[in-house]
Amino acid sequence: MSEKEAAKTGEPLKAAAAPPQRKSVAEDAAIAAGKDTYRRLLSYVKPHKRQFAIAVLGMVGYALTDTAFAALMKPMLDGSFVEQDRNSILLVPLLIIGIFVLRGVAGFASTYYISWIGWRVIKQLRAEIFGKYLTLPTSFYDQASSGELISRITFNSQMVANAASTSLTVAVRDTLTAIGLFALMFYHSWQLSLTFLVIGPIIGIIVARVSKKFRTISRSIQGSMGDVSHVIQEAVEGSRVIKIFGGQEEELSEFELANERNRAFNMKETMVKALNQPIIQFLVAVALAVIVYFASSGDFVDRISVGSFMSFITAMLLLFAPLKRITNLNNEIQRGIAAGESLFAILDLESERDTGTRELPKEIGSIEYRDVNLKYQLDKPAVLKDIQLSIASGETVAFVGESGSGKTSLVNLLPRLYELSSGSVSVNGTDIDQYTLQSLRSRIATVSQDVMLFNDTIASNIAYGSRNSIDEETLHAACKAAHAHDFITKLPDGYETLVGENGIMLSGGQRQRVAIARALLKNAPILILDEATSALDTESERKVQQGLDALMRGRTTMVIAHRLSTIEKADRIVVMDRGEIVEIGTHKELLAKQSHYFKLHQLQFQ
Ligand SMILES: Nc1ncnc2c1ncn2[C@@H]1O[C@H](COP(=O)(O)OP(=O)(O)O)[C@@H](O)[C@H]1O
Ligand SMILES: [Mg+2]
Question: What tens digit of pLDDT does each residue of 143-180 get?
Fold first, then answer.
């Protein structure tokens, strides 16, 4: 695991602590890692051995036809045209057709099956990564960029498969083609072949230079395309902010910059591309000219027939394309390995720990926090310090404290969204680690300040996770209790109304009530309310509060509230300050103490 990834997962930076390795050792390690990645990628192809064999067979067939076609030049010119041999006159046309039939079939088989395997591998990789995303710890998502995570699934997986199939095709088909053509050239004239061996590499070096330039530009284009999408994404997602703060000018000029950069890079690419072809052709022509000169002067003319010479030239011309691809093979493989590594880096991340085997029953007793400490990052100060708290069954405990004092962090430990640094949290006298994540989380319902809704119907959002087992009556009952039924039925499509991305079609209060209905429907014995009403105006807050009151009835509730009435009604109030619990008591007790709560109360509620 690299340092960066370790930082992402919040794991100790072991690599950083190790003494710096000597360079050669590090290089060896990199090569070994590359080989490992390579082997691991191959393991995805293994189940498709049969298709793989057909594809390779197709490539071999295809490679043969190139050589066969070049070889055919000799009987065609010498036999059919010069000697007017009857056999040749009949046979050569048939062979031409035969060769191209074979070429067609072989080409189809290799293209089809390579693509077949490629898409299976892409699908498999995507499924594995998506599955992984569902199990990664919350801390991973705190650090990761969503765009990056999406493109790993969509783009990098495809890049792996493309690079792999390209390099395989080159390694098998082009190598065989080159060997066949070269053998043919030597067969016709070793002297001319040697001449070619001198000119060939010079051309090769120039071609390699040009393609390198080309790749650099390609990469810049990808980067500049990313910039363009980035500006668009921001403009689309932030359309409201842009309108209100009059950011149009700023966005336009930023877009113009990215847009222009992209245009310039593309023109540069066009330029290299357009120059590439004539330069290579010119070099090939030079090679051809040299060979023609040698062949037609001196001793060669007597010894080589027209047919042999044409066959030689054809083979040579056919040789350039595969040779060019072969020189590029290593880059292609490296690109595939790099993309593969980026995928395996995700697959190798540690999933959420889920080693518990117990099932948490529906009857919840007490919840205990013992000596709990929490650090999100090792190098940052603790966010929760030495928390001692026990909550009785059915109790409502309110948490108050300045923003950043650790209230959300404290309640998030219960559904194990984060791992404690030390101490323990237990339910029914058993450490929550001992329960399966699934059973623990199924007993907890949460409503928080920002409600996450999927771009789906209201009904699907409310019944999220249990759509198939919920009947309409239960759904409506939950919505009535949450004071959501009335507004939902007034919507154009009622319960089937689409809420838009992140519920944008609903008002803040409506979203909250949908979230409350969702929590009610879950009917879990533990309830966590994290500033569930703080974003609301008084009118909708009143309605939401009624919903919440219904929700809290008969449950063990941890409520982070800014609203006095909620706090006053709570059985106990926990006052937090900079990660510590500084006071616990009822509203009256704490007011009488004239300490932390008293001050907070005066600041916030007077
Ligand atoms: N996911 C996180 N990663 C890193 N630090 C966090 C994360 N969530 C909260 N913090 C930090 O922990 C502290 C407590 O935050 P939080 O529990 O959200 O406080 P509260 O809910 O009382 O406002 C803050 O300093 C905050 O910056
Ligand atoms: Mg909070």
Answer: 887 777 888 888 888 888 888 888 889 999 999 999 99
How far is the C-alpha of 482 from the C-alpha of 486, rounded, in Å? Answer: 10
Reduced to 3 states (helix: H, G, I; strand: E, B; else coil), residue 251 is helix
8 Å CB contact between 397 and 570: yes
DSSP state of 457: B
CA proximity to 510, closest of 536, 549, 492, 534: 536
What share of the chain in percent tops pLDDT 70? Answer: 93
Distance CA 175, CA 255 (A): 46
Residues in contact with ligand 1 by the CB-under-6-Å rule are 142, 376, 383, 401, 403-409
Contacts of 8 (CB under 8 A, 6+ apart): 140, 143, 144
- Decide if 536 contacts 509 (C-beta within 8 A): yes
In ligand 1, the atom with minimum distance to the C-alpha of 406 is 17
Residue 13: predicted pLDDT: 32
Give the distance (Å) from ligand 2 centre to CA of residue 370: 21
pLDDT at 140: 92
Angle of helix 175-188 relative to helix 306-327, nearest 10 degrees, comes to 150
Give the ligand whose atoms come closest to the C-alpha of residue 529: 2
CA atoms lying within 13 Å on the CB side of residue 329 = 14
Grouping H, G, I as helix, E, B as strand and the rest as coil, residue 419 is coil
Q: pLDDT tens digit string along 316-340? A: 989 988 988 888 788 888 888 888 8
Catalogue the long-range contacts made by 77-84 (C-beta closer than 8 Å, 24 or more residues apart).
77/305, 77/306, 77/307, 77/310, 77/311, 78/305, 78/306, 78/307, 78/308, 79/307, 82/305, 82/306, 82/307
Q: Which domains does the chain have, with CATH numbers?
A: 1-188+328-351 (1.20.1560.10), 367-605 (3.40.50.300)
Which residue's C-alpha comes closest to atom 1 of ligand 1?
142
Q: From the CA of 235, how far away is ligand 1's center (Å)?
A: 28
Taking CA atoms only, the protein residue closest to ligand 1 atom 3 is 376
CA-closest candidate to residue 8, choices 380, 375, 349: 349
